[in-house]
Amino acid sequence: MRIVIALGGNALLRRSDPMTTEVQRRNVAIAARAIAPLVAQHSILVVHGNGPQVGLLSLQAESYHGAEPYPLDVLDAGTQGMIGYLIQQELRSLLPSQSQVATLLTMIMVDPGDPAFANPTKFVGPVYAKDDADALAAEKGWAFRPDGAAWRRVVPSPEPRRILEIEPITWLLERGAVVICAGGGGIPTMLPASGPGELVGVEAVIDKDLAGELLAEDVRADLYLMATDVDGVYLDWGTPQQRRLDRVTPAELAGHQFAAKTGGRAAIGSLADIAGIVAGTAGTSVIAGAGAG
Q1: pTM reported for the whole predicted model
Q2: In this predicted model, what pLDDT tens digit does every residue of 243-282 receive, in sequence order?
Q3: Cα angle, residue 215 at apex, residues 105 and 75 outer, rounded to 5°
Q4: Strand blocks (E) in 49-138
């Protein structure tokens, strides 16, 4: 099978983790150990999030006085290289020496008229107390929203429209490489709204699950697997009646349309259960025409 794996939740950083290289490498190693056994029998692409990391790089760049702040598209590119390198290194250490693993900087087109630009919702960076968030909002013009009991910066998250590097991604897959791409949802880019012009970066962060869904469609994946820190989708979560769904239709799980568009399977579940999710014995599978249960 051709499988797109989107790493989220505890795959990179837990909420309480310090944002150090050591901690990220430890968490990436866990993900790599779950993915590596699949490589012998399947064609694998890996997508990852970057919310905490892009916020961290932004703060580091802000501390450099005398220079303009780094724009989010450049920071997105930086996190693709940083996180991709860690995943690539950990996977290579587990695979036969002849196996190829490649990280590809990936630009993704967005629409200049996307309504997300007027309504920032994507969390980036660390959590803050309310007073600290208010001070940063006043100083830097950042937008903040509550995230649990704390506050985090939010930025626009436009919908991904087109993956510019889809051809080299496909070439690498056809030659047997594991491909790490569209990291952090890809580097958001656009053409000017009026007439032809130069491709430019965008001050935004694309949702990695939506980018992964687009990638899965473009490479004609058989399975789009979202690895998180829970073991599936639940009804009545947090109540005595809560139950995990084994199979649902795309309509029952609004927002994940890969299965409806392609006839392939999408699945959500725990990183630790990746092998079972691929086999269809763990997690929640989204299958066109399947009934809930």
Answers
A1: 0.86
A2: 777 777 766 665 556 766 777 888 888 888 888 989 888 8
A3: 30
A4: 101-104, 107-109, 122-128
Average pLDDT score over the chain: 86
For residue 270, list its beta bridge partners.
228
DSSP state of 143: E
Residues 74-91 have a mean pLDDT of: 93
- DSSP element (H, E) containing 84: helix 72-94
Question: Does the CA dihedral 20-26-27-28 come out positive or negative?
Answer: positive
Task: Name the residue type at position 66.
Answer: G
Q: How far apart are CA 155 and CA 250, in angstroms?
A: 28
Question: Which residue type does 219 have?
Answer: V
CA atoms within 13 A on the CB side of 239: 7
| Cα gap 137→38, rounded to integer Å | 45
Q: Judge contact between 179 and 216, C-beta under 8 A.
A: no
Contact 36, 94 (CB under 8 A): yes
Alpha carbons 43 and 45: distance in angstroms, whole number: 7
135's CB contacts (< 8 A; 6+ apart) are none
Amino acid at 104: L
Beta pairing class for 143-147 and 101-104? unpaired
DSSP 159: P
- d(Cα 267, Cα 283) in Å, to the nearest integer? 7
Query: Which candidate, 199, 32, 221, places its Cα nearest to that of 110?
Result: 199
Nearest Cα to Cα of residue 73 among 45, 46, 108, 49: 108
- Cross-sheet strand order for the sheet of 143-147: 122-128, 150-155, 143-147
Q: Which two tokens stand for residue 118?
A: 């007027």
Report long-range pairs for 37-41 (Cβ below 8 Å, ≥24 apart). Answer: 37/275, 38/3, 38/274, 38/275, 38/278, 39/91, 39/95, 39/99, 39/178
Identify which of 109, 103, 108, 48 has the alpha carbon closest to the alpha carbon of residue 81: 103
